[in-house]
Amino acid sequence: MMPDDEIHRARTLRLKMTKENRMRARTQVAAISMKYRAVKNSMLSGAIDKAAFEKAYNLVARTIRRYRQEFTERQKAIEESWALTL
Predict the structure, then answer these.
(1) Distance between CA atoms of 6 and 55, rounded to whole angstroms?
(2) Distance CA 27, CA 30 (A)
(3) Which residues fall within 8 angstroms of residue 86, CB to CB, at 6 or more apart?
(4) What pLDDT, on the 0 to 100 scale, is given for residue 45?
């Protein structure tokens, strides 16, 4: 069994890495959502047609899906590292 201070240090590191992972994902999503909002506003104002908007929407959906997958993979690595510590 590990000493309590080592477990505490590992837990603190796990929480820190989880928080950083979450903030990274939020930053990525916020950046693309601003671009999406601009495209949506362009469609609503008539500057682009519905087909162009749908193409942009599909691109954003694919990108968000990739961001979620990356987040899940990073979080899984963090949890696996924590499990090894225990």
Answers:
(1) 51
(2) 5
(3) 2, 7
(4) 96
